[in-house]
Amino acid sequence: MLYPSIDALQRTIPSKYTIVTVAAKRARQIQDGKAPKVAEPKSYKPVGQALEELFSGDTTIIVNEKNNG
Asked: What is the annotated signal peptide range for this record?
């Protein structure tokens, strides 16, 4: 079973699309050499580490609302 589960992540971030997008961007940063923000990640893969960061609250999401008018 994967940790954290999608159900657990959706308690804090309701949109699956947002979870995937943010995790992918953060995983790319980790893969490019940035250190994971979780002290002892359970996953050794960047995507798993990014999801753990989202679940623990170590990675925040900034919503940029643009007016398309």
From this structure: none
Decide if 21 contacts 36 (C-beta within 8 A): no
Question: String of b and e for 8-36 (b: at least 16 CB within 10 Å)?
Answer: ebeeeeeeeeebeebbeebbeebeeeeeb
Domain ranges of the chain: 6-56
**Look-up: residue for tokens 């657990």?**
8
DSSP state of 39: S
Cβ–Cβ < 8 Å for 36, 55:
no
Q: What is the pLDDT of residues 35-64, one digit of tens each?
A: 989 888 888 899 999 999 998 888 878 777
pTM for the structure as a whole: 0.80
